[in-house]
Amino acid sequence: MANMILVAGATGGTGQQIVGKLKSADYAVRVLVRDAAKARDLFGDSVEYAVGSTLDPATLTPAMIGVQAVVCATGTRNPVGDDRPERVDYEGVSNLAAAAKAAGVPRFILISSAMVTHSEHPLNNFGRVLDWKLKGENALRASGLAYTIIRPGGLTDQPGGMAGMRIDQGDKISGIISRNDVAAAVRHALDNITTYHTTFEIVNTPGNPHPLDRSEYWQSLFAALKPD
Fold this sequence. Notes:
228 residues; 23% strand; eight-stranded mixed beta sheet
């Protein structure tokens, strides 16, 4: 189980891309899923399966066994109900961070969202999702884990590496970004100490296709990051 990474939200669009990037970099991957049979249709035998939910803390303890890092790419499509943003983006993230801390997992990467500090943004009309994502971020920051919080712009299914990249801090930029590019950012941030205890926004910029899987490229982007 060397280099075992637990991915929560693995069956979502971004989560699937993250799993693919981690597998291509020879990480062992365990996915936290509610229904392993359905998840096998996506991943087959290429990953390990932990059946559970970020909303059920009791299921998270066994999922953490042997894990070196957690990547959380959970999200919801429901503004109300049991899977509303308060539950998924705050309570679920808090539970996952607490379980990682209790298990001695040293590393945690959270996929959040650009504009989370802008409560007036129209996205916040969806169940106050930005407010709850920010509360989830703060729970992770308070956990003591070596975290990285990635705030992508609007997510697209375009191929990765087809446009330029911009990274900034302070929640000042917005735009769109390929899910595949977000996954590449996760893969290269994972073992990059420059990204520890940092929060940053990431979007695509016009033109300038980039070398998606070259660590030197990502190191140049991460070099200007400042800790929170």
